[in-house]
Amino acid sequence: MFMSPVLGSLSELRHLNLRNNMFMGELPSELFRAEKLQSLVLYGNSLSGSVPNECKRLRSLDLSQNNFSGVIPDGFGSSLGFLEKLDLSFNRFSGALSASCLQL
């Protein structure tokens, strides 16, 4: 099952919890067009690809227990100015975390 990019057109979307839904494939970048999105929980799916770098307004992001891989982008932490909670555990990342991620 793939996640629909239409979710990003929900202009009043603030909290989205889609944990344990067996979603697979890459996270659609359109999802982050929902300008009021503050909380995104995608725990326990089979999502893959790289971590999105478009999460500017999020306060809480849980991408744990998926199949995300690669290096977490250098500017990832600095692009998350409002973030209070981040969980990227149990994925397949490689490399070191940048200093901007460690300051969250």
UniProtKB/TrEMBL annotation:
<dbReference type="GO" id="GO:0016020">
    <property type="term" value="C:membrane"/>
</dbReference>
<keyword id="KW-0677">Repeat</keyword>
<dbReference type="GO" id="GO:0051707">
    <property type="term" value="P:response to other organism"/>
</dbReference>
<keyword id="KW-0732">Signal</keyword>
<keyword id="KW-0675">Receptor</keyword>
<dbReference type="InterPro" id="IPR032675">
    <property type="entry name" value="LRR_dom_sf"/>
</dbReference>
<protein>
    <submittedName>
        <fullName>Leucine-rich repeat-containing protein</fullName>
    </submittedName>
</protein>
<keyword id="KW-0812">Transmembrane</keyword>
<keyword id="KW-0472">Membrane</keyword>
<keyword id="KW-0325">Glycoprotein</keyword>
<dbReference type="InterPro" id="IPR003591">
    <property type="entry name" value="Leu-rich_rpt_typical-subtyp"/>
</dbReference>
<dbReference type="InterPro" id="IPR001611">
    <property type="entry name" value="Leu-rich_rpt"/>
</dbReference>
<keyword id="KW-1133">Transmembrane helix</keyword>
<dbReference type="Pfam" id="PF00560">
    <property type="entry name" value="LRR_1"/>
</dbReference>
<keyword id="KW-0433">Leucine-rich repeat</keyword>
<dbReference type="GO" id="GO:0006952">
    <property type="term" value="P:defense response"/>
</dbReference>
